Amino acid sequence: MVLVRRLSVGLVAAVVTALAIGIPTGIIQTSFYHRMTPVLWWNYPVWALSAILTGALVATYVRDPAIEVPPTQGGKTFAGSMLSLFAVGCPICNKLVVMAIGVSGALNWFAPIQPVLAIASLGLLAYALWARRRTAAACRVRLGAPA
Q: Is residue 56 a contact partner of residue 129, using CB atoms and an 8 Å limit?
C-alpha cells in the first residue's frame, strides 16, 4: 500500500514539476507565453530528468506508518528545481536576469552558463535523492519497538 502511494505521489509531483518548469520557460507551448529564443536540444532531457528526480524525491517523503524517518533534503530539492528552471529558460525572457545584466548580458553571459546550471541542478537533485535514500535506510526506527 505504501509503495502504491509513493508511486502515485511521485508521479503527480513529477507531472506538476514538469508543468511548473515547462510552461513558464516555453518548453511547453501555450498561448500564455511565447519564448523569444528557440528551445535547445539539451533543454528537453534536463527538463525531463529534473521532473523525474523531483518526483522521486517527493515520493520518499510519503510516510510509512510503521517507520519514522527524519525529514531531510527539502532545501536541496527546491534549489535543484529552481536551478533547472533557470537552466532551461529563455535567457532574454527571464526578467530577473535581464534586470540584473541587461539583454546583451543575458545573451552573452547568462546563456553560455545555462548548461552549467543544468548540470548543477541535476547533480543537486541526484545528490538530494541519494542522501535522502541513504538517511531513510540508516535512520529507520520502528514505531512501538523497544529501544
A: yes
Residue pair 43/81 in contact by the 8 Å Cβ criterion = no
Is the separation of the CB atoms in 43 and 27 below 8 Å? yes
Cell numbers standing for residue 51: 521532473
Q: State which residues of the chain have pLDDT below 50.
A: none
Three-state secondary structure along 19-86? HHHHHHHCCCCCCCCCCCCCCCCCHHHHHHHHHHHHHHHHHCCCCCCCEECCCCCHHHHHHHHHHHHH
Domain coordinates in residue numbering, the chain: 2-142
20: Cβ contacts below 8 Å, ≥ 6 apart: 81, 85
pLDDT of residue 145: 54
What are the distances in angstroms from CA 10 to CA 63, 64, 130?
Answer: 13, 15, 16
What are the residues whose beta carbons fall under 8 Å from the beta carbon of 97, sequence distance 6 or more?
86, 91, 105, 106, 110
Model-level pTM?
0.83
